[in-house]
Each structure stands twice: as structure tokens, then as C-alpha cells.
Amino acid sequence: MYFDIIIAGFGGQGVMFIGNLLAYAAMEEGQYVTYMPVYGVEMRGGTANCTVVVSDQEIGSPIIHHPVSAAVMNKPSLVRFGLVVNPGGTLFVNSSLIDMNEARYEDLKVIPVPTIELAAKAGNSNMANMTMLGAVVEETQVVSIEALIHSLTKALDKKYHKMIPINAASLQEGARYIREGLTV
Q1: Is the dihedral of CA 180, 104, 72, 21 positive or negative?
Q2: Distance of alpha carbon 24 from alpha carbon 57, whole angstroms
Q3: Are strands 47-55 and 2-10 parallel, antiparallel or unpaired?
């Protein structure tokens, strides 16, 4: 098994957190994993992306030039990373903030994920990053939703453990969206 993804968005959208959480969940399931964050100059409000590689064999490099998947949370990330996804790969697009007419790639499977609406349905519209991760994991089956939820205690500072239930609900809502055929 081999899976890689670039997750990208504005600083402050929780891109690094969901990449880190995915890495913890992969370790939880006994996989090899690399996680590499990349920050823009500005931090919050600037660009941010991370790469996550998950494999059942040792990983030679965390650097990905043409990922099999990408999850983009904003239009600048779509422009930058939509073109680098391997032909036949999957592009997850935050359709709450990106016009899907701008996300047309003939050689990719493009999945619109209305992250904000799904997060609001789960109970907190600020959890858009978590609904995106839930959708990615449900579609790709790279790890289980249960491993993600269990890994929240490792990825979150102890002072934020009270947020685990809403994070878990948001992950599950993103997964439900994929499982039930892309309906909000």
C-alpha cells in the first residue's frame, strides 16, 4: 500500500493539523509515515501546505512532486496544486470557498467537499478542516475514521481535549458525506 497527499490552504485553516492527525492515525495503524509541513512567509493568512506519505514499506523521501491526491482548501491552493496531481489521481476541493467551475481537470477525479456546511451540520462551522479530512479518509481508505478519532488525543494539546467530541463529529460528517453519495 502506498498513499501520498498534499494538503493546502491559507494559514489558519488547520491544514497542518489535519496532516499531522493523518500521520498519527497512520502510525496508530502500524504504517510507515512521513509528514512535512511547508509554511508561507506570513503564517496566519499566508499559504500553508503539508505532505503526508503513508506506506506499508519504508519511505525513501517525504518530498512529493506529483501526488496521487491533493486536498485544497482555497483557490490559490487549487491553482498551485491542482495541476501537479498525478493523472488518474484524486483532487478534493473545498467547494465552500472554491467555485467548482474553476476545478475542472479532465484527468483527475475531482471531489467537491462543502467543508463549512458539513462542519456546521456537525455542530461547529470552524471545523471545516476536519470535514475535509473525514472526506479524504472515507474516499481513500488510507486509514480508518476510528484511528483518526483515537489519534486526536495525541495531535491535540491536552488543554484542547475538550474539543475532541466536535472534532470527531466533524470527521464523521465528512466521511458520511462521501459514504452517502456527496449530499449535505
Answers
A1: positive
A2: 16
A3: antiparallel
Whether residue 161 contacts residue 153, with contact meaning beta carbons closer than 8 Å, is answered with yes
Q: Is the confidence at residue 19, as pLDDT, over 70?
A: yes
Instruction: Please work out, in degrees rounded to the nearest 5, the angle formed at the alpha carbon of residue 13 by the alpha carbons of 10 and 19.
Output: 100
Put simply, whether the predicted model's pTM sits higher than 0.85 gets the answer: yes
Identity of the residue numbered 137: V
Residue with cell 458525506: 177
> Is residue 7 a contact partner of residue 18, using CB atoms and an 8 Å limit?
yes
Q: How far apart are alpha carbons 107 and 116 in whole angstroms? A: 27
> What tens digit of pLDDT does each residue of 109-156 get?
999 999 999 999 999 999 999 999 999 999 999 999 999 999 999 998
Burial category of 85 from C-beta neighbours within 10 Å (exposed 0-12, middle 13-18, buried 19 and up): buried
